[in-house]
Every structure is written in structure tokens, then in C-alpha cells.
Design brief:
Layout: E1 6-12, E2 17-23, E3 33-40, E4 51-52, H1 54-71, H2 81-100, H3 107-115, H4 120-123, H5 132-140, H6 147-168, H7 176-183, H8 206-216, H9 224-235, H10 239-242, E5 250-251, E6 256-260, E7 273-277, H11 280-290, E8 301-307, E9 313-320, H12 328-338, H13 347-358, H14 363-369, H15 374-380, H16 382-395
Parallel strand pairs: 3-4
Antiparallel strand pairs: 1-2, 2-3, 5-6, 6-7, 8-9
Length: about 400
């Protein structure tokens, strides 16, 4: 704390550290404003611009604090694209750290850091001078990337600029939002007619899934990985949703589980849980994780290992699942043993959606159960929808012409 309401923070990341200033008006009800000032001089010498030592960070923070207290606009008139992106990354990294319970980098930090912050022509531009041509020029410089990858980076940049505009719109041009909208409208082909959507080799038959779950037990001493795989297959939910399940979310008497909605999209979703029916076999597989445990406890846990001085690993304690990478090695062992090394865990979600479509469930219900939109289902699973409708239409065909006619 520099003084009441004024703070200078040091955020330590996996690949570097950042100076962050926070301004909170005295007596104000809001949480205040945050601004990434620049990179700390842990790994490189300070240059007074993008890499700062403590004194330089303090000077830059005090300058920003004065702007907040005098102008009341909450923004530096000379703020650049770099400033907007770095502040956005800090916010996203903090949110990701809260989710996983440890310091972590967000996808925004990885995508924007690799493909935007290295583009000096774009990040040096002031927001008040930013034009649609600047943003289109940046898009053209991403020629080495595939269309789908470009779209993901573009989406993150749009979110960063929109977040800055939402917070500081009084100090930015009135048409700044329009500049973002049309400047970041994709000028590249996102996909072609021949591009695969839901990869066919990742849609598994029911028997293939049974084989995976059966083989999974051979490589799982405690059943922690297997229970996760069973729920992935039975619900088609994302890993991030299942990682937030609590014991109380499983309702054995109703053969049902209440799955938290995903963090995708903006704002609060209603309802906040998805009611998913489970088979009795799945409920039985989950019993070791629910019987005798507190209702508020996390449903899915795994052993956390700690390395001793002798370079051996010992079990430390049980912790909730945090990231999909924690199941990667185990999953690869199972797939290699089954002779299908290219199948990924997300195939279980693909298969669940296709199974529901083939069973004739309405597309709207399929989308609701899998926490997505009907547009995404129709876009990525059009082939299976068509096949399902053909089967339904075929059942409506009746003989009309007499054999003797």
C-alpha cells in the first residue's frame, strides 16, 4: 500500500512477473481499477518503458493514480493497445488462479502474448488513434495460422478491447466499439466446405466406450481416473464442469446428477445446473466417492504427490481435479493399450452428443443437456442430425400401392 486506496502489486507468473497498480477511491463502494504497468526486471534489465524496476514502477503508478484522482475518467489519454491487453491478461490470470487454486496462466495470456503482444505495429498504437485498418492489418499478419486458430486469438483480442472500452468509454472515441466490431470482423476463411467439424474418428460407439472404461481400471489403482472418465462418457460434460461437482450434486435416489453450467459466455446463466439422468451402473461406480462424505465436499478427487529429498514421489494428500492435463498421461496409456493413440478425452463428449441425436432427442434438448447452443449442434453434427431425421422419416413410410395394381 502506497497510501489509502493506492496500491502497487507484484504479480508473479510462470514465465515472468508484472507490476500491477490498483486504485480504489476512498469511501467508494467499488473494487476500484487495476492497471498492468509493465514487466518486472527479474529476467531482463529495466529499460524504463516495458521492463521496470521498483522505482520506475512506483513512478508510473503514481502518474496513473494522479490521472484517476484528477480527471475521474479512469484512463490515461495515451493508453495503448499494449496497456489494454496487459491489464486484460492480469485480470484473466487472476480469475484462472482462483478457479484452479494456484497461480496459473489463462488462455488469454497464452494466445495474446504469443500473437498480439509481439506485434509492435499494433500494440504501440494508442486506443484513441486505433483504426479499423490497423486491426485488419494485424489479421493479415497472422497468415501462418489456421483459420480456426486465428478466430480464437481474434476473439481474445476483441474481448480485451471491449473490456477496456466498457470500463473507460467516457475517455475513448464514441465510435470505438464500432471500430472493434468491423476491424476485427474476420477477413480470412474460418473453415471450408471440406473441413471436418466434429471429427468422425472421435465419435465412438457404445462398445468402444465400454472397452475404454474397462481398460481404464487396469491403469487406475484408486479408481479416481476411472470415475472421471465414466462421468465424461455418461454426461458429455466438459472437464471444467465435472471438476466443480460436489457430493450433494449426485442424487442416487433419482439416478441423476446436477452438473454446474460452464463458464463460457457472458453473465449469469439460468438455470445454474443441468439435470442429467444417469444409469444405475454409473451411480454404483460413483458410490465410493459419495458414501460417508460431506455433502459440500468435492466429488472428484485425486492423489497429490510430493517429491522427497531422495527423488522419490510419495502421496501427500487428496485434492480436487484442477486442469485436464492431470489426466493426460493416464489417458494416453489407456489409448495406447487399446491401439487408438489419437483418440482424445473430448471424444467422449462428441460421442455423447451423437448418441443423443441418434436416439431421436430434440436438438434443443441435446443442446441444453450438453450446455451449448442449437446452432453449434447443427453446425458441428449436421451429418448425424440428417441421418437421424432420415430414420424417423423412413418409419413414416407405409405401403400405398396394391401388389395387384
Amino acid at each position: 500500500m502506497i497510501s489509502e486506496g493506492l496500491h502497487l502489486g507484484y504479480y508473479r507468473g510462470a514465465r515472468g512477473s508484472t507490476w500491477v497498480a490498483r486504485y480504489r477511491p476512498v469511501g467508494g463502494a467499488s473494487n476500484g481499477l487495476k492497471k498492468a504497468l509493465g514487466t518486472a526486471d527479474d529476467l531482463s534489465a529495466a529499460n524504463g518503458d516495458t521492463i521496470l524496476n521498483w522505482k520506475q514502477a512506483l513512478d508510473k503508478a503514481n502518474e496513473w493514480f494522479q490521472q484517476q484522482e484528477s480527471g475521474g475518467t479512469g484512463i490515461n489519454p495515451n493508453i495503448t493497445v499494449r496497456d489494454a491487453i496487459e491489464s486484460f491478461i492480469v485480470t484473466r490470470d487472476e480469475r484462472q488462479a482462483v478457479r484452479v487454486g494456484r497461480p496459473a496462466r489463462s488462455t488469454a495470456g497464452m494466445k495474446l502474448g504469443a500473437h498480439v503482444l509481439k506485434d509492435e505495429a499494433l500494440i504501440s498504437a494508442k486506443l484513441c488513434d486505433l483504426t479499423e485498418a490497423d486491426l485488419r492489418g494485424w489479421q493479415r499478419r497472422l497468415s501462418q495460422m489456421k483459420g480456426s486458430s486465428k478466430q480464437r486469438v481474434l476473439t481474445e483480442l476483441k474481448a480485451a478491447l471491449n473490456a477496456t472500452f466498457e470500463e473507460h468509454r467516457k475517455a475513448l472515441p464514441k465510435d470505438f466499439g464500432i471500430t472493434i466490431k468491423f476491424g476485427l470482423k474476420p477477413i480470412f476463411a474460418i473453415e471450408t466446405a471440406s473441413a471436418p467439424l466434429a471429427r468422425e474418428n472421435q465419435v465412438l460407439s457404445d462398445q468402444q466406450i465400454r472397452d475404454i472404461l474397462s481398460k481404464a481400471r487396469e491403469f487406475d489403482e484408486d479408481g479416481d481416473y476411472t470415475r472421471l472418465a465414466i462421468l465424461l462418457a455418461a454426461t458429455g460434460a466438459r472437464f471444467s464442469q465435472l471438476a466443480r461437482l460436489r457430493v450433494a450434486d449426485v442424487q442416487p435416489e433419482l439416478n441423476r446428477v446436477l452438473i454446474p453450467v460452464s463458464h463460457k459466455g457472458r453473465g449469469q446463466k439460468a438455470p445454474t445446473y443441468i439435470r442429467m439422468q444417469l444409469g444405475p451402473d454409473v451411480i454404483e461406480a460413483l458410490r465410493p466417492a459419495i458414501e460417508g462424505r460431506a455433502a459440500a465436499a468435492m466429488l472428484l478427487e485425486r492423489w497429490h504427490y510430493r517429491q522427497k529429498a531422495s527423488l522419490t514421489w510419495i502421496r501427500a494428500d487428496r485434492q480436487p481435479w484442477k486442469t485436464p492435463s492431470e489426466m493426460r498421461r493416464w489417458w494416453q496409456k489407456v489409448m495406447d493399450a487399446l491401439g487408438c493413440p489419437d483418440v482424445i478425452p473430448y471424444a467422449l463428449r462428441h460421442s455423447s452428443i451423437v448418441r443423443a441425436i441418434r436416439k431421436g432427442l430434440p436438438i434443443r434438448l441435446v443442446a441444453a443437456l450438453h450446455d451449448t447452443s442449437t446452432a453449434m449442434i447443427e453446425k458441428h453434427y449436421a451429418r448425424w442430425i440428417t441421418e437421424s431425421l432420415d430414420d424417423i422419416a423412413a418409419r413414416a413410410v407405409v405401403p400405398l400401392v396394391d401388389a395387384d395394381t
